[in-house]
Amino acid sequence: MSDLIEGGQYLIKNRKTGQYLTGKPNPDRAEHGTVELQPLREGEARRTQLWELRQGNAQGRFMLRNMERRQTYLHPAGHSGDASTLLEEFVYEPDHADSYMWEVLNETTPDGEVWKLKCVVGGRWLNVVGHSHDAGAQAEVYDDDSETHAYRQWMLERVPSTKAGTGVELPLAFSVPEEFLSLDFAASAEENTNLLLARLGTLERTPSQEELAHAVLAQQTMYEMLTAAGAVYAGVLLAKPPAGAPPEKQHLSSLILSVIARPSELANEHTVTRLARTLGAIHPEAEVGVSRLPSGPVVLLTQDSKVEKPVNLLANDDQPTVVRQLHVFVPIPGRLAMADFSIATENLAEWDHCVDILAGVCSTIAFT
């Protein structure tokens, strides 16, 4: 695993002990918990060992959110960056934002790839207290830069979710045009594949077996990425080639619409101002702005990405293509969360029409 997926869910396993980082709620304080290492658990309790990687307030910094109690994040006890400070879970507080931030650094060892988690406050590494192998050992931030040892090396095992949400809930409703083929996150990959093939079978031009195979692979890749990111909706709109298009353009293109729950530093209208500044700094090549919908202020981000392998749903050649994305970040009133409504397409000739589609979806947003 060479790349970490923002929004992805990970089991964090210590390389030396083979134990997994586990959130342990405090029965006396709902907003507080400790962190220790335990063997991999099965069933619902395992979710206390599942952490979601969330983009922080600066490039290269992340927050680790516990999936059992989705409002709690990993950070040093008492917001301290001192050496040998124990780790805890705590409800995110913007006044102590840096203590929730981690730099995730990649290393290659003789037996594979590992990661080191460095706390932004204090610049110290996530470590096992006392170098213990025992279950129940606690975690700390530790200062020893003179030596690289396996107690500070972690295996981040990504766990793609199989359902929309795995607990993600957005208190809003919206409508999508019926022409979209919606993914069912509760269905199996086989069921979604059969639905896609049935839709493709109704097209005027019957796709070849190679095109069908590529369409299935493209959808499955999208399914895995969006479920890992905590998507609550994803759908695909197939676009016919324009009349009179040359032979090399005689393939369908696709518009992907998704809605993803994302964290927010603030829970009021000031969120959009800070987010716009942050996105502008992280993505200087993108167009970033603030607008207002009937539901309230939002942040817009438009960005082109050149990909070496085409993502046309029913084409598969070796020529690079450009995919354009538009994100509309909608703050959720009263919560440290946003809804990320986005579209992505390689059909740049019809971009204005795609924007109109997303604008129509966003105009139906209503908070519940």
Provide structural commentary.
This protein is an alpha+beta fold. Helices cover 15% and strands 38% of the residues. It has a seven-stranded antiparallel beta sheet, sandwiched between helices. β19 and β20 form a beta hairpin. α1 crosses α2. It is globular. The two termini are 39 Å apart.
End-to-end distance:
39 Å
Low-confidence stretches: 161-168
User: Mean pLDDT across all residues, rounded?
Assistant: 79
Helix and strand content put the structural class at alpha+beta
Query: What is the strand content?
Result: 35-45%
**Shape by Cα distribution:** globular
Number of strands: 21
Strands in their spatial order, largest beta sheet: 14-15-16-20-19-18-17
Q: C-alpha Rg, in Å?
A: 22 Å
Major sheet, described briefly? 7 strands, antiparallel
Number of helices: 4
How helical, in percent, are the residues? Answer: 10-25%
The helix/strand series, from N terminus to C terminus, equals EEEEEEEEEEEEEEHHEEHEEEEHE
Question: How do you describe this structure in short?
Answer:
With 368 residues, this protein is an alpha+beta fold. 15% of the residues lie in helices and 38% in strands.
What's the topology here?
Layout: E1 9-14, E2 20-26, E3 29-38, E4 50-55, E5 61-66, E6 72-76, E7 85-91, E8 102-109, E9 112-119, E10 125-128, E11 139-142, E12 154-158, E13 172-173, E14 181-182, H1 189-200, H2 209-228, E15 231-239, E16 253-263, H3 270-282, E17 287-293, E18 296-307, E19 321-331, E20 337-345, H4 351-362, E21 366-367
Antiparallel strand pairs: 1-4, 1-12, 2-3, 3-7, 4-5, 5-8, 6-7, 7-11, 8-9, 10-11, 13-21, 14-15, 15-16, 16-20, 17-18, 18-19, 19-20
